[in-house]
Write a structure and sequence with these properties.
SH3_Tf2-1, 2 helices, elongated, three-stranded antiparallel beta sheet, Tf2-1-like SH3-like domain-containing protein
């Protein structure tokens, strides 16, 4: 082993330890700033809220598809407060399906999901949505 190898090894460890410590301190400082801005939101009965929509690839939902599809839907009114975090919402829809336009099978790993393209009452064919076949029946 080279005579200066131990010192070089110690110097490198110290250098990388110092840089990781700086990252940790910076991260803690940023977390502290965001925690100061964060606040709990209290909802009461009668308030209106929006729901976050989970997106499926290749599935058309809520009138638009692709990048312009909405990330949130609503507003829905809070009907009843069950737990401090849990609320019951009014999720009624007046939409009725008119006819099935197309069928498709979405394959995810080993699972296949049968889908149907549904034309809704009071909407054109461009606003037809892909729904699970089980939900339509």
């Amino acid at each position: 082993m080279h005579p200066g190898g131990n010192k070089m090894h110690r110097d490198l460890c110290e250098l990388y330890w110092l840089s990781s410590l700086k990252c940790e301190v910076t991260s803690d400082r940023q977390k502290c700033y965001t925690d100061l801005k964060r606040r709990d939101i209290e909802y009461t009965i009668g308030n209106f809220v929006f729901l976050k929509v989970s997106l499926w690839n290749k599935v058309l939902r809520f009138d638009c598809k692709g990048k312009l599809s909405p990330r949130f839907i609503g507003p829905y009114q809070i009907l009843k407060r069950l737990e401090p975090i849990e609320v019951r919402l009014d999720l009624t829809f007046d939409e009725e399906s008119v006819q099935v336009l197309d069928r498709d099978i979405k394959v995810q790993w080993r699972k296949s999901i049968p889908l149907v393209k549904v034309l809704w009452q009071n909407h054109g064919t461009k606003e037809a949505t892909w729904e699970s076949e089980d939900l339509v029946r």
